[in-house]
Amino acid sequence: MKTNNDIKLGVSLYSYQDNYYFHRLDVEGCIAAAAGAGAEGIEIFSDTMIPEWPYVSDAWIDKWNAWMERYAVNPVCLDHFSDRAMWHDKQLSDEQMFERGVMYIKLAARMGCKAIRVLHEEHIGAKSFSGYKLTDYDTIARLLPIAAEYDVMLALEVHTRDGVGAPYQQKYIELAEKTGIPYVGLQQDFSTFSYCISTADIKGAVYEGANEDLLMFIREKQREAYFAGEEFDYEEIREKVEAMKPNEHDQQLLRFVVGGHGPRVPFKQLYKDLADNAAKLVYCHGKFYDIDENGQVDDMDYPKIFQILKDNGYKGYISSEFEGNRRMNQIGWCDEVEYVRKHQALMRSLLNY
Amino acid sequence: MYNKQILSENNARSVWAHGEKYGYQFQVTINYYRGLPLCCVDQITMVIDGEQVPYDEMYIQHRGREYHYPDILKDDFPTDFYWLFGEPLTVVVKNGKGIEQGIHHCKLTLGTRRSYTPTMVSVCEKDLTFA
């Protein structure tokens, strides 16, 4: 359903990955599910759901356009990936990474997508942890005029625990300002604002053999701290946790609680950075892993995030990006269609739509 | 990811020519949340009833084309043959004699290289009925 709202809602079809993997829904089925949940925008991964990728025919583009028309939705974003480590003992050069970037921009333009989500070097933190160099600043600077030529925004997705205010993200906003080419910007993924272990992670870990009491204890302490307006300090509960003798499965989640990917910036600062950057953001991923019995995302403060975006002039799409499926699907079928439906309803209520 | 599912229960059977078995096949799906080019496959290792299938006998069939398994591991293999998410990849083992019809215990190890997470190695062990 198309609207004139400043903040529009979309769905990344990635949210339906198990339905697609197990052939319950095809691409059109996923688009129908998103439209049925009330979304007006569609995000798609080329290497997941475009069978002809990387050489996509006009006939497929026609089919895509017909789906956009049939389901009254807009193409929003095509996801770019930085597959540099193509071979065991050889990697793509910077020049080849640039060429692949151009390939994504051109396909996005043909599909009517006004943005590509770029997997940039600082996607997860100041340094990628795969050991592979992703698409870096210099390559993005080279892609910028091409993006302008094709009218496609380079949306750099920020998944990090120090958010969009980090200087190593801000340098890209400065790049757009410095060159006068406003075709690169930051995309906020809401996982930055996760304040406790998600129940999706706990359910998955418990299935593998983790101790539910122990993980729920940590989660409750994290929630207590967050809602008291304090920063969670693991050191305060370390002794109690160690007395509960965490096993290897508990340890796996604990490592993330304690260290995660890089330093955690205090929530007060994260929210301030979100407010300061809201009007400049080019896209948002409404990341979620689980939804609680009250219809709320179980580990992020959606009411607060939405209030900040509204009050500070964010204009653009927020797309549901469900990622609880891969945490919970070993337990049994994870009903992604139902999760996305609830998530869209939550977002509409927070926007008073 | 999908560790229990990467070894498909579909289309496991002997392959025949002129009334004679010359090999057998099984199907594999990807251990990731998206597709990857075939050149990003790091390893497909299959052990059937305790014996490893020789790499040299393995051929990969994908969208009407067939590649000798050792070739897809080479550093000049094309980057544009995409093994899409959820798409079955057929592995044909040309051992000259097929496989005895019935249940066999299989252990598949699949390694794939990805952009921003380390190479993931998934192991799937199950009984498969070969037709």
Brief sketch in words of this structure:
Chain A has 353 residues and is an alpha/beta fold.
Strand content of chain A: 5-15%
**Share of β-strand residues of chain B:** over 45%
Report the biggest beta sheet of chain B as strand number plus sense, adding barrel if it closes: 5 strands, antiparallel
Strand order, biggest sheet of chain A?
Answer: 1-2-3-4-5-6-7-8
Q: What does the overall shape of chain A look like? A: globular
- How many individual domains of chain B? 1
Number of helices, counting only DSSP H or I runs of 4 residues or more of chain B:
1
Level-2 CATH architecture of the largest domain in chain A: Alpha-Beta Barrel
* Tally of domains of chain A: 2
Provide the CATH topology of chain B: Immunoglobulin-like
Named CATH architecture of chain B: Sandwich
CATH topology of the largest domain in chain A: TIM Barrel
* Average residue pLDDT of chain B: 96
Task: Please describe the biggest sheet of chain A, giving its number of strands, its sense, and whether it closes into a barrel.
Answer: 8 strands, parallel, barrel
The helix/strand series of chain A, from N terminus to C terminus, equals EHHEHHEHEHEHEHHHHHEHEHH
The helix-and-strand class of chain A reads: alpha/beta
Number of helices of chain A: 15
- Return the average pLDDT of chain A rounded to an integer: 94
